[in-house]
Amino acid sequence: MKALELYIHIPFCVRKCKYCDFLSGPATRAEQEIYVESLCREICSYTDLAKAYRVVSIFLGGGTPSTLEAEQTESIFTAINRTFTIAEDAEITTELNPGTVDEKKLRAYQKCGINRLSIGLQSADDRELRMLGRIHTYEDFLHTYRLAKEVGFTNINIDLMSAIPGQNLSDWERTLRTVAELSPEHISAYSLIIEEGTPFGERKLKLPDEDTEYRMYENTAGILEEYGFHQYEISNYAKGGRECRHNKGYWQRIDYLGLGLGASSLLEHMRFSNTADMKEYIGNSAFPDKIRQNMESLTEADEMAEFMFLGLRMTEGVSMEAFAEYFGKNMENVYGEVLKKHLEIGMLEQKGDRIYLSRKGIHVSNGVMADFL
Question: Which CA distances in Å does 103 have to 36, 48, 147?
Answer without folding.
Answer: 22, 36, 7
